[in-house]
Known about the structure:
The structure is a single chain. This protein is mostly beta strands. It has one domain: Immunoglobulin-like (Sandwich), CATH 2.60.40.420. The chain has two helices and 13 strands. Strands 2-1-4-9-6-7 form a six-stranded mixed sheet. Strands 3-13-10-5-8 form a five-stranded mixed sheet. The longest helix is centred in the first third of the chain and has 7 residues, at 4-10.
Amino acid sequence: MTNQAEVVAAADWKEAFIIEIQIRQNEFNPAIIRLFQGEPYILIVENRDQIPHILASTEFFKTTAIRKVLTEKEEISGANLIGLHLSPGEIKEIHFVPVLDGWYDFEGSHGGPAVYLGDRYFAPWSHGARRGMVGAFIVEP
C-alpha cells in the first residue's frame, strides 16, 4: 500500500467530505457508504443505543490512510484500526483517505471487552451480523 503519511499529507482536509453513520436498534443508518479513492473523508459514527456497539471492517481499514481518530476524550494520530468500539451515546470521528478501490463489508455487534493482540485490539462479536448489523463501504476509483 502507498505510504499512509504521504497520502494524509497530500489530502486537502478543508475539502473533506463528511459522512455520518448512526447505530440505532441494532442497525447502521445508512448501511451503504459510497466513497472515492484518494478523496479525504471524515466519518462520524454515533451510537444512539443504550448498549455498547462495535463497527468492524478489518479489510477496509487496512486499505485506508488514517489521519486521526477523535473521541470526546482524545485525539489519536496514525491509528491502525480494525474497528470502532462505541459506548452508549458515544460519537467517534475517523479522518481518512481510501487508498484502494473495492467493496468492503462492515458489521456490528454488541460491544464486549477488547483484547490486545500485540499490535491491535480485537473485540469478540456477539452475532451482530446475524441480527442485521451489516453494511458496506464501496470505494470507487
